[in-house]
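#dry-run=false #mode=assembly
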Amino acid sequence: MRNCLVAQSGGPTVAINASLAGVIQGAIDSKEFYKVYGSINGVQGLLNSRLMDLTHKVETTPMFIELLKKSPSMYLGSCRYQLPDYKEDDTPYAYIFKKFDEYEIDAFFYIGGNDSMDTVDKLSKYALAIGSDIKIIGIPKTIDNDLCVTDHTPGYGSAAKYIASTLLEIGHDTSIYPINSVTIVEIMGRDAGWLTGAAALARNTYNDAPHLIYLPEVAFNKDEFIEDVKAAMDKYNNVVVAVSEGIKDADGNYISATNAVEDTFGHSQLSGTGKCLEYIIKENIQVKVRSVEINILQRSAAHMSSITDIGEAFRLGRHAVKCAIEGKTGIMVTSIRKNNEPYSIDMGETPVENVAGLVKHVPREWINERGNNVTQEFIDYAYPLILGEPVVKYQRGIPDYLDISHLFPNKFDN
Amino acid sequence: MRNCLVAQSGGPTVAINASLAGVIQGAIDSKEFYKVYGSINGVQGLLNSRLMDLTHKVETTPMFIELLKKSPSMYLGSCRYQLPDYKEDDTPYAYIFKKFDEYEIDAFFYIGGNDSMDTVDKLSKYALAIGSDIKIIGIPKTIDNDLCVTDHTPGYGSAAKYIASTLLEIGHDTSIYPINSVTIVEIMGRDAGWLTGAAALARNTYNDAPHLIYLPEVAFNKDEFIEDVKAAMDKYNNVVVAVSEGIKDADGNYISATNAVEDTFGHSQLSGTGKCLEYIIKENIQVKVRSVEINILQRSAAHMSSITDIGEAFRLGRHAVKCAIEGKTGIMVTSIRKNNEPYSIDMGETPVENVAGLVKHVPREWINERGNNVTQEFIDYAYPLILGEPVVKYQRGIPDYLDISHLFPNKFDN
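#status=ok
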């Protein structure tokens, strides 16, 4: 009996460790693998010989799998390493496959976004070229939800829940003064508006915030934006605007870009899109205005994850193991939505080349004509993904997450 | 039997509605008052005749008190209204006391920070001057924890818990890459460092972040800051810095102030202190740097309140009612720490003039000599205040808070 290997790559999400837990539990339950190894810092762990015995961790750490499912960020760390084309330079490939041999690896699971799927694609094609029968399987994750083929990506539901809940809390916070105000909330998503659109889930029987939503899928028009805010101020004292960091003007320039900001305000160095919209309001409407950037909190707030998201991430990890055992390779596991009410999904898979390097945008018809709100279709799609709350254990007043000190320098202990 | 009146003022906290709930429940339980009225938007509600019958709300809304205790922001709204000196202009006083008569008010409870305590002080002195025996009582609240006399203020513990938990999550988030990085986290507190110091509670058996903490109580020295960060980078790959928005240089200038920033970088308009420190690092150390501003989330995240804080806020509300019934006036109710382990407090009171307009700073000896960390005394003080988690009810994936539509224009319905 041989071993399997798992690694994580790309940016953190609240669900990526649940997929890792699913791989570990799936591999152990299958009894097809002797050990599950984890590569620290993505494929770089292979290049630097930093592997961790996860089977041993499960055996020696009480509640390891349960804690792992609920811990944010990436237990195995990440990397920004990109493989070259093996036809041009196969040095790292040769080294990685030598390591696979050394550790007697039968299957390699890589949890990540579309860059990581590019790695899966390249490694599986190299395996084919050299006649290796090692199985290389991708497991999706990204808060951005911008991977193709799969209905949605693990990490998205939790980030969407955090964003919706935070927008509701901002709605409460901004309602206290009987004067006009505008609050701009900048949300992540450089290329796609899935996260920003999820702000609409903050609306309930009494809260209409966010009153305006701007996604990267529609060209941003400054004059229309000013009109939109003025119109909203006729209806609401305190206008809340959700905006994606990735909005661009009709020429394709990021609104947050240095040049665009210089043109408009003569400032040389501004931070984000929210700040930029704040200045637009300041210069054009006499009203109190503030911008809030949710920043990395939206991808690390494991204290408010979606149990739907965490559960599916775990299932996808297990499914990846099943696929490997069935002999599949060069694939990414996917979610297939079977039903919306009651919501249910099936596990599936797709050749990873259908995903690598591609971006799934919010369909234009899920955004209203004016481009300042999402439609009911969007809400119906995103809503089931944020449902359910995990029981978060606290220790000394703060969440009890899994020790990650093996990621710190000079602390690596296999 | 006559009535009592309650209002809220200043900025939102997660616990101010729990104090409101304590007043309502205390007044009902005492059987000394026929009705509890709420004034919408602080004393402005009295000036504009916007009063709400809270006894009726309790009778007609299931779980009203329980929901109110767990809902963020301010159920009765806030105001920025400041009373003039009554010896110079008693017009608003005469109007307010006419309203007190009209609604047969025996006691007025004002929940707020030190500006609001100024209002309590002025109203109680005016009452004395005109021979009115209406009781005017202040109930403290502020996330800033900067009120004198009281051991701490309701709202602080919850904000501190949110900040500590968020810093732990940021610690996880920033640990994933095996490269150097610096993350600056800007925390509220214009005058006092209580909130920023609470970031130290994020540290646990494996997490040392935040590695540096800068409070407004110690003059900020840019050169020492650069040295501190470089020294921390020798020990940690990913350095996390917690900084108060209110830090100042040795001349008393805010680091975030336009001028200070212009002097250093030639930029004309920058946002916060975090951004400013980000630029200092960028210009002086070759390292990946990012700044995160927790912003209004730290005062509105009721989904992660401290049950200690919420419980004490409720108790203070009840205690205020008791004080009024005992004939006290011109006072603010206070917390008196009896014991730290096990932690317990008594309720007390102080003449409001001991609080109004004053600021309680973090003692210099609770900050280390270098001025880049808090001491164990600070941690021992703040730690009990963040303990305990409420059961937060969710509805459709987001927290189930109390309807605040009575704060919206054209929606006021008594």
